[in-house]
Amino acid sequence: MATLLLLGLCLASSVAGANVNLTSAGCVDPSGLQACQNKVNEQTTSCINQAKRDSSQQELLACSCADYINNYNCYAAFCWNRVWECEYQEYVISYMENCATAKLPVPYFPAPDGAADACSCNLGKVHMAVVDAIQETATCSNNADSGDASSNVQQIQGCNCCEISGAFSSIFEICPNTDPTLIGLSSIGDLESELNTQFSSCGPYLETYDCISSLSYSLDGVSTFLKPSDPLQTGTDTLSNGPGSVTTPASGQVFSYTNGGDGVVYTITAATGAAEISAKTSAAVPGSGSAQSGSDSTTSAAKSTGTAKSSGARVFARGPFTTFVLGCSALAVILL
């Protein structure tokens, strides 16, 4: 089933024409990025082959997570001048939504407000606001413990409505000029279905329960939770990169971070024509940095993380701007 699911996601991406890839054009070191990505592809292929030998669906999914991590680490080193652009932000969102163990921090995500050469819509900020709305609904529902069963049911429904309103508000307030169909609007219907709640029925609940003052919702970038009766001004802009250019790496020439997904401490050296990535563990990482020889780190990571459990939080349904990315054509050949 996992194999069919992965192939299905690839096919869906192809039909939609929304494949999210990290390209080298305009990077500070395009040849370095390409070499790094080639190494990632080799490791991912080896990982998938090992997963097949082990007949392990979990290892196969872990290969996908490792592929994402290795690719955006390459980008952070060799293409740090483009990390605020739509392409990189979309890629990280794809990782967050398609890897069950994905967690922040991730380099250069989300983009800060007012960054040079940034995507016209702060996609990461929208994504995180929607994720927060979902997570805060779990807390909100758990707090419905007044002792009055009827009152609790009403409050839980208010929580559900605040979640849907929060998703709507994230899209329309954070990126008011962007065509909302490009940033997940059509996927809100999946939230409604999952919660068995239509936003059109939420008016009375949102009048009774103020999402911020009564139910303690707090979403970065959202000051007002929309009601069904509120007029919407729909943007029409496509996604594009803004003015300016990034001339120095925002995180410095050398920085380390602990990846939230695999727990590895990565050290990334920004390219000035060459760059390196090293990991402060035994896991080998693409690039010219230090790595333990004689081991396939991506395969090892798949074996060690293949049994990892997700946090159990519900995941916001994929918007049109997020797709599964593992090199779909290569994946199809390997799996078949």
Structure description:
By secondary structure, this protein is mainly α. It has 2 domains: 2-111 and 248-335, no CATH class; 123-208, no CATH class. 45% of the residues lie in helices and 4% in strands. It is built from 10 helices and 3 strands, in the order ααααααααβββαα. Strands 1-2-3 form a 3-stranded antiparallel beta sheet, covered by helices on one side. A hairpin with a 6-residue loop joins β2 and β3 (276-279). The longest helix is centred in the middle third of the chain and has 26 residues, at 149-174. It is globular, with a radius of gyration of 21 Å. Residues 1-17, 281-297 and 303-336 have low confidence and may be disordered. Keywords: Signal. This is Extracellular membrane protein CFEM domain-containing protein. Residues 1-17 form the signal peptide. Residues 293-305 have a biased composition (Low complexity). Residues 285-305 are annotated as: Disordered.
Give the helix/strand layout.
Elements: H1 2-16, H2 30-54, H3 57-78, H4 86-98, H5 123-142, H6 149-174, H7 188-195, H8 203-208, E1 254-258, E2 265-269, E3 276-279, H9 297-305, H10 328-335
Antiparallel strand pairs: 1-2, 2-3
Helix pairs in contact: 1-10, 2-3, 2-9, 2-10, 3-4, 3-9, 5-6, 6-7
Low-pLDDT sequence parts: 1-17, 281-297, 303-336
Proportion in helices: 40-55%
In terms of quaternary structure, the protein is: single chain
Characterize the largest beta sheet: strand count, sense, and whether it forms a barrel.
Answer: 3 strands, antiparallel
Shape: globular
Contiguous helical run count: 10
Overall pLDDT score: 81
- Give the count of structural domains: 2
Tally the beta strands.
3
**What string gives the helices and strands in order?**
HHHHHHHHEEEHH
Beta-strand residue fraction: under 5%
Straight-line distance between termini: 13 Å
For the largest sheet, list the strands in their spatial order.
1-2-3
- Give the helix/strand class: mainly alpha
Rg, Cα atoms, Å: 21 Å
Protein name: Extracellular membrane protein CFEM domain-containing protein
Signal peptide: 1-17
Keywords: Signal
Region (Disordered): 285-305
